[in-house]
């Protein structure tokens, strides 16, 4: 099987000095992409991780440059580095992140906000700067990184909240990008990286080391960023040579004739019962189901308007 050819397309990969970002960048470059390797500058006297990755890529005949801007404050400079060096941008892989663990009530506010800002704010900053160039590409590709942390885990409230925000952001960007040929997909990766080393269990770390190399995740990321891959608005759990789609889903709804707290107390068992799941990939799908449950004719109205129509400039009451 021939390698996927990226034909000189240009990619930005944040947090690419080590771990999964490094793996994503090297695999993209190995298939012809020109890559901006973004990672923070090292302390004085230490070697730049980003520059080291660039040297690895160049040594194998690839093209790459290093960038040391912070994703939160320097998203526009990261993107501009791609434009200055290569004249275009086709792919944005938002991989940069950090991890601090502390219980919500004990977290230092600045640290809590800092983790959230790097993951969510950094993703937003890079993609806002990248968006017009991805539109110009005609086949722009976005990869964001979420985590099972968004499903809930004690001690990582900031990280989990940011990852949940990234999941929602990616879904909306996929909807907005359809007309411009932009795809946006979210990866829930598991791999042995420095972030995984925060796990305090040698058996788990050994299993990660043995089976969960970053390259397993990169193979899916690179496939999704290829110009001939048109998959969009999806989330993938990826680890150790396995991948599966993830989605938001709802259990069957419970309808009551009179909506009071007492009636819901009586119907608690029905409301909490398991049952067939309905998957949702957009606001229009979930909102449409809610409306259609009350008035089946509303589906025809929504279909005539192409889904859920919003007025972007209107002020909605809170």
- Weakly predicted, low-confidence segments: 313-318
Order of helices and strands: EHEHEHEHEHEHHEEEHHEHH
How large is the share of residues in beta strands?
15-25%
The CA-CA distance between the termini, in Å, is: 55 Å
Shape by Cα distribution = globular
Main sheet: which strands, in order across? 3-2-1-4-5-6-7-8
Helix content estimate = 40-55%
Taking Cα atoms only, what radius of gyration do you get, to the nearest Å? 22 Å
Helical stretch count?
A: 11
Mean pLDDT score, rounded? 90
Helix/strand-derived category reads alpha/beta
Q: In this structure, how is the largest beta sheet organized?
A: 8 strands, mixed
Q: Give the number of DSSP strands.
A: 10
Walk me through what this model shows.
It is a single chain. Strand 2 (34-38), helix 2 and strand 3 form a beta-alpha-beta unit. Mean pLDDT is 90; it is low at 313-318. The chain has 318 residues and is α/β, with parallel strands linked by helices. The protein is globular. It has an eight-stranded mixed beta sheet, sandwiched between helices. A two-stranded antiparallel sheet has the order 9-10. It has helices spanning 19-30, 49-59, 71-86, 109-137, 157-177, 202-211, 214-225, 261-266, 268-272, 283-294, 298-304; strands at 10-13, 34-38, 63-67, 91-94, 141-145, 183-190, 234-239, 242-246, 248-250, 278-280. It is built from eleven helices and ten strands.
